[in-house]
């Protein structure tokens, strides 16, 4: 993933420092169509499940994607390789980038991945998906110079009451559509997310077979998709007080609040913003586990962060 990201960022321009420290890789600053960009990734799993992609060129402008994989990297890699291409295709008409074009791009990517799963089912039956990512806007408050965080993205997580209500409304005949296991709400007791790309075994019954791992298999048949690939789309006009946006996977948000992350970016120079965020999250994770930071970075989960200004 890091090699591909280097190639993508080289197209954005800029010559700021990039480097690697163990499993942490960063590009401190790069120019893009919309301004400047800082990127960092830390790998804790044997296989990095996160993927990210940056493209900056007309007619789409700057497109950033953070694809958070689970149970394997395959769906995240597929989405990384195909989603922005599908968006260019969907937005090639006279109306350009619209909510419908974005939705069409997601659904085309989903169909492409499920078709790939169908072809690979005999040799690679486990279908993974992408999940928790968040976009947070940092904006100045009045004339004080202080920064406040505004979350732009919705979280399709069964731990959210609104998501559970949505699932129960969509599946009124299934009393087990959400289940509490070990203090965590999960869809069908298996997965936390309610929307994803991939996770074919929860969308089409023909993939819910003995070929997949027992922990992912549903004991009962189903006639309609349990998870959805339909994205939530938010359109927001930028204001003069808006300063930056943080795109990151769940590894960051498990340890930093929206406001903490925004203040870290705001209180330092732009170069290295993403690297500082990841290091702050790792230090907080080490504190929670009563470990040294140097020991934690050897075992902690993957984190991807992008900060465009």
Automatic annotation (TrEMBL):
List, alphabetically, the InterPro entries matched: PP2C, PPM-type-like_dom_sf, PPM-type_phosphatase-like_dom
The EC number(s) this enzyme carries: 3.1.3.16
Reaction catalysed? O-phospho-L-seryl-[protein] + H2O = L-seryl-[protein] + phosphate; O-phospho-L-threonyl-[protein] + H2O = L-threonyl-[protein] + phosphate
This chain's source organism reads: Oryza brachyantha
Sequence ranges assigned to domain PPM-type phosphatase in this UniProt record: 36-309
GO MF terms, alphabetically ordered? protein serine/threonine phosphatase activity
Where is the signal peptide, in residue numbers? Answer: 1-16
Superkingdom field: Eukaryota
Q: Which Pfam families match?
A: PP2C (PF00481)
The entry's protein name is: protein-serine/threonine phosphatase
């Amino acid at each position: 993933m890091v090699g591909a990201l280097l190639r993508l960022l080289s197209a954005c321009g800029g010559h700021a420092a990039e480097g690697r420290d163990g499993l942490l890789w960063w590009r401190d600053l790069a120019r893009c169509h919309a301004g400047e960009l800082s990127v960092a990734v830390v790998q804790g799993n044997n296989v990095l499940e996160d993927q990210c992609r940056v493209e900056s060129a007309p007619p789409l402008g700057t497109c950033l994607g953070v694809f958070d994989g689970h149970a394997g990297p395959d769906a995240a890699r597929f989405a990384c390789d195909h989603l922005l291409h599908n968006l260019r295709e969907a937005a090639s008409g006279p109306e350009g980038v619209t909510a419908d074009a974005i939705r069409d791009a997601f659904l085309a990517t989903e169909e492409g991945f499920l078709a790939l799963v169908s072809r690979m089912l005999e040799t690679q039956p486990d279908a993974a998906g992408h999940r928790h990512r968040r976009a947070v806007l940092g904006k100045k408050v009045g004339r004080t110079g202080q920064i406040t965080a505004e979350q732009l993205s919705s979280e399709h997580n069964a731990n959210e009451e609104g998501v559970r209500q949505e699932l129960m409304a969509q599946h009124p005949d299934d009393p087990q559509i959400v289940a509490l296991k070990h203090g965590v709400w999960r869809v069908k007791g298996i997965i936390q997310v309610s929307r994803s790309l991939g996770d074919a075994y929860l969308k089409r019954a023909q993939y819910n077979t003995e070929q997949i791992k027992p922990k992912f298999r549903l004991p009962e048949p189903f006639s309609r998709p349990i998870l959805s690939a339909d994205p939530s789309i938010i359109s927001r006009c930028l204001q003069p007080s808006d300063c930056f946006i943080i795109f990151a996977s769940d590894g960051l948000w498990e340890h930093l609040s929206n406001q903490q992350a925004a203040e870290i970016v705001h209180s330092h120079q732009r170069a290295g913003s993403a690297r500082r965020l990841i290091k702050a999250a790792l230090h907080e994770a080490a504190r929670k586990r009563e470990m040294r930071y140097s020991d934690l970075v050897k075992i902690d989960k993957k984190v991807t962060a992008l900060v465009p200004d």
